[in-house]
Design goal:
The chain is mostly beta strands and 107 residues long. The chain contains one helix and six strands; from the N terminus they run ββββββα. Strands 1-2-3-6-5-4 form a six-stranded antiparallel β-barrel. It is globular, with a radius of gyration of 13 Å.
Length: 107
């Protein structure tokens, strides 16, 4: 595993937008660098689908909207690489570590 950031498990409702469509899903895990999102009805329901490199924005309660690109598609959704600056990354890490992101931290 060559990830730069540790991932934390999450089960949080989210909306993913590709600029044309919004689709409901669930964030499965998150880090300062990205997230895995399971689409409620499958990735194929986007009219044109999503492919690696496509710009997306993810919205979840309790977190700022996060912009990034599709790093890859997975069986039931997408893996997103965030495109956020250092300050936004620090804010996201703080939210993850404080539990504000709705994480399952094993409490």
């Amino acid at each position: 595993d060559n990830r730069r950031h540790s991932r934390a498990p999450m089960d949080r409702a989210a909306e993913v937008s590709d600029g044309e469509r919004r689709h409901k899903g669930r964030v499965k895990d998150i880090s300062a660098g990205g997230a895995s999102v399971t689409m409620n009805s499958g990735i194929e329901d986007f009219d044109r689908g999503l492919a690696a490199g496509d710009f997306v924005e993810v919205e979840m309660d309790g977190l700022m909207p996060l912009q990034g690109h599709v790093a890859r598609t997975i069986d039931d959704g997408i893996a997103i690489a965030f495109e956020i600056d250092d300050d936004e990354q620090d804010d996201l890490i703080d939210a993850i570590m404080s539990g504000r992101a709705g994480l399952d931290l094993g409490d």
